[in-house]
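Hi R.,

Here's the chain you asked about this morning:
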Amino acid sequence: MHLQWRRAEEFRCLKYLMVKTMAKVKITQFRSDIKRAERQQKTLRALGLGKVNKSVEVELTPQINGMIQKVNHLVTVKGL
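And the predicted structure, written out as tokens:
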């Protein structure tokens, strides 16, 4: 019985992952990271940014959302 429940739970998780797709967002850096805290500079690098007017397209996960909030004064975000 336990094995059947486990398989059913795995199926539900897989089904959820297949149905739920993350939204994509385009992040553009519009201000320089010069004279910013090292933590903010590292966050920009982790997002794939580092130069003014550079853009990246990423899936909007809770982790990416948190990074965007930390450097929201340096970037613009557009939903795709």
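The beta strands are 24-29, 55-59, 75-79.

Let me know if you need anything else.
M.
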